[in-house]
Amino acid sequence: APGRRPDAAWIYMVGHGGGMVAGDVTRLQCEVMAGATAVLTTQASTKVFHCRRGGCARQEMRCSVGAGALLAMIADPVVPYQDSRFYQRQTFRLAGGG
Questions:
Q1: In this structure, is the dihedral angle defined by the CA atoms of residues 69, 73, 38 and 89, taken in order, positive or negative?
Q2: What is residue 39's three-state secondary structure?
Q3: How far are the Cα atoms of 7, 10, 74 from residue 13, in angstroms, in the given order?
Q4: What's this model's pTM, rounded to 2 decimal places?
Q5: pLDDT by residue (tens digit) across 16-70?
Q6: Which residues contact 84 (CB under 8 A, 6 or more apart)?
Q7: What pLDDT shows up at residue 5?
Q8: Neighbours of 51 (CB within 10 A)
Q9: In sequence order, which residues have a C-beta less than 8 Å from that of residue 40 and are 6 or more positions away?
């Protein structure tokens, strides 16, 4: 069928601890080439714990999607705990038809 995408690369973002604290920075950069399909997902919610002395946890993502490509972003929620501070930036660059 036109538009059908049977072969997709699944990418799981896996944390390496119980959650994020002040000073933690996670950066992700991905590129989905022309005509490709990718699914970007997480294994659990992102927990952000108490941040002392005005600190902040950060998460930054930059993705580019080529012509005729598809990127499906299916992330679990961010769970901010009391007195936490969290900065998140997501940048997506799309080619024509991406």
A1: positive
A2: strand
A3: 19, 10, 11
A4: 0.81
A5: 778 999 999 999 999 999 999 999 999 889 999 998 888 999 999 999 999 999 9
A6: 48, 49, 50, 51, 57
A7: 59
A8: 20
A9: 11, 13, 30, 63, 71, 72, 73, 74, 75
The number of beta carbons lying within 10 Å of the beta carbon of residue 74 is 9
Measure Cα distances from 19 to 62, 68, 77 in Å. 21, 36, 13
- Burial level of 59, CB count in 10 A (0-12/13-18/19+)? buried
Rounded CA separation 74/60 (Å): 16
Specify which residues 63 forms β-bridges with.
30, 92
- Residues 57, 27: contact at Cβ < 8 Å? no
